[in-house]
Amino acid sequence: MENCQVGVFLGYASRLGQALIDRRLYLPEAWASDDARRSRVQIPASVTFATKPQIACALIGAALDAGVPCGWVLADALYGSDSRLRRMLEARRQPYVLAVRSNHHLRFLTEAGLLQTNPAELAELAGVAGLRWTIEECFQRAKEELGLDHCEARSWHGWHRHMTLCMAAAAFLARLAAQLRQGAGSKANERSPVALAA
To answer: Please, which residues have CB within 8 angstroms of residue 13's CB and are 6 or more apart in sequence?
Structure first.
């Protein structure tokens, strides 16, 4: 699809591993308004222009609505600087650590208009913020092991099929690795045999 190969991905991380769990192709505004181009690459009529933060908001909302357990939502400054995403998470009372641009000003107000303090400790927030890089690990593994970045799709459906197949394979491998970690953690230590004296 020429220069339109940028997607928005949703990753999930737990103490046992991480995987990409949803994706959507970003459709630039120029593509969204070009009927001939849309027809050529089979973009469904129901797909309209949405910013990357709007797509992320929809993906996160769908995962939360589906009951995906979530301690924290993490994202980089592209998404964190979008007030609609923050408002959606706050309305759901979903804890988040979202990066923002250095020139971005945030106000934390309660419904009564009073300054709100974050109940999490600074050390906890710093630790959680560091977990944002797990999505980069998901991308790296999916690219190296499964060809996530070898997509040469020429259609909307082709891109989604390739990404879905890679993500399903990566999720299978992540689950297998998690089961192995769980099994290793529950295995009793074995003692080495006592050497016999000569």
So the answer is: 131, 134, 135
